[in-house]
TrEMBL record:
Domain Orn/DAP/Arg decarboxylase 2 N-terminal: 45-281
Protein name: ornithine decarboxylase
GO biological process, any: putrescine biosynthetic process from arginine, via ornithine
Claim: tRNA-binding is one of the keywords in the record: no
Biological role stated in the UniProt entry: Catalyzes the first and rate-limiting step of polyamine biosynthesis that converts ornithine into putrescine, which is the precursor for the polyamines, spermidine and spermine. Polyamines are essential for cell proliferation and are implicated in cellular processes, ranging from DNA replication to apoptosis.
Gene designation per UniProt: LOC115809223
Top-level taxon: Eukaryota
Lineage: Eukaryota, Metazoa, Chordata, Craniata, Vertebrata
Organism field: Chanos chanos
């Protein structure tokens, strides 16, 4: 395993008492002097560390396989690798990226139910055994391209309580599962478990209990057909924003009770999950610069003075990141709120405002309506909870490039991480001796 080295990964270890927001404000002041007004992210790796510790405390029996697609920044992946997390990969490229960190193949699940044959062959050559399927066609591809797969049947579950539903595209219908398992047996393939995904931005912890209950039925079906079913993958959908309700602990409580009811520890079933947004959403803050401004006046008003015009109109601001960049995914569960970097007086007057992205696309609208103090070209706006499905989904439309990400970690977080990794290493050595 390649050790997590802040210097090698270009991570700034900042003094205790200094926050990631303080670091970001310092960068903005520095950029002002340099004339650099490009948008940029600041990623607080200490926040990700705390999320991992929170997971271990609340769901110790569930092994996290981080969803690489959510944010594939190398410092984040290296941190999670050193913390002992495993990885959910969806393509050959993601598998290559994780293997390059020194992660062993047994810590990877190829959790894409529809894979390109050459990617399956790559996984086989590099020892990736765990992979999902939800169709006969996928079973046929795997039988041709992989000679030692440990297959996990992805089932469709109720995702109506989530903001981003996935089961219209992935997941076998429960009535089709028996046929798929029989086909796997005909092909002499090894099915070891069941997976599901309740959808991204799940609002109801009960959705996990319902899905775990459904998984038990498919487990029993597989056992009756002669498969050694020993793996349950409870997918993703866990909250990543600090303001999201219900809180992660409420999800964890429901999951623990459901596992105890349907998959008690004496069954020997290993339980894994695929958290993505949970780990990284709140870690990143985006800074965007106001690159243009327009005032829409009320045509019915005869007022001409600037103050009167502002009172009667709407401000439109143009910023240098948009829907073709960090705002590519419309997060209904956790809408983005842009706020001024400069603190405004409480008595400061605020105006109806619209915020646009930088491209020529008329749909590049970030906020249709909000209330802001009057801003000027060159001012900065900040956006919290920008770590999940943001820059990783950006394009280069109109020639606008992805902004830089500055990774930070306080000295206290660095020490806490070292202690955790040291304790984990001692525990692993003790288990090996046993």
């Amino acid at each position: 395993m390649t050790s997590f080295c802040p210097k090698t990964l270009n991570i700034s270890v900042i003094e205790d008492g200094m926050s990631a927001l303080d670091f970001m404000n310092q960068r903005i002041e520095k950029f002002k002097k340099l004339g650099n007004r490009d948008a940029f992210h600041t990623a607080d790796l200490g926040d990700i560390l705390e999320k991992h510790l929170r997971w271990v405390e609340n769901l110790p029996q569930v092994i996290p396989f981080y969803a690489v697609k959510c944010n594939n920044s190398r410092p984040i992946l290296a941190l999670l690798a050193d913390l002992g997390a495993c990885f959910d990969c969806a393509s050959q490229s993601e598998i290559q990226q994780i293997l390059s960190l020194g992660v062993t193949p047994d810590r990877i699940i190829y959790a894409n139910p529809c894979k390109q044959e050459s990617h399956i062959k790559y996984a086989c050559i590099h020892g990736i055994q765990m992979m999902t399927f939800d169709s006969e066609d996928e079973l046929d591809k795997i039988s041709r391209c992989h000679d030692n797969g440990k297959l996990v049947l992805r089932i469709g579950v109720d995702d109506s309580r989530s903001s981003l539903r996935l089961n219209s595209k992935f997941g076998a219908r429960l009535q089709d599962c028996c046929r798929l398992l029989e086909r796997a047996r005909e092909l002499c393939l090894e099915v070891v478990g069941v997976s599901f995904h309740v959808g991204s931005g799940c609002r109801d912890p009960q959705a996990f209990r319902d899905a775990i209950s459904a998984s038990r039925k498919i487990f029993n079906m597989g056992i009756e057909l002669g498969f050694k079913m020993n793996l349950l993958d409870i997918g993703g959908g866990y909250p990543g924003s600090k303001t999201f309700n219900p809180k992660f602990e409420e999800f964890a409580d429901v999951i623990k009770f459901a596992l105890n009811d349907f998959f008690p520890t004496d069954t020997g079933v290993q339980v894994i999950a695929e958290p993505g947004r949970y780990y990284v959403a709140s870690a990143c803050t985006l800074a965007v610069n106001v690159i243009g401004k327009k005032v829409l006046t009320d045509k019915s008003s005869n007022k001409n003075a600037d103050d009167d015009m502002r009172a009667a109109g709407i401000f439109m601001y143009y910023v240098n990141d948009g829907i073709h960049g960090s705002f590519n995914m419309d997060d209904v569960a956790n809408p983005k709120i842009l706020y001024p970097q400069k603190k405004q007086a409480l008595s400061c007057h605020k105006y109806p405002s619209i915020i646009w992205g930088p491209t020529c696309d008329s749909l590049d609208n970030l906020v249709e309506h909000c209330v802001l103090p009057e801003l000027e070209t060159g001012d900065w706006l900040l956006v919290d909870d920008m770590g999940a499905y943001t820059s990783v989904m950006g394009s280069k439309f109109n020639g606008f490039k992805e902004g830089d990400t500055h990774f930070v970690m306080t000295q206290a977080s660095w020490r806490k991480m070292q202690r955790f990794c040291s304790q984990r290493s001692i525990s692993e050595r003790a288990e090996h001796l046993l």
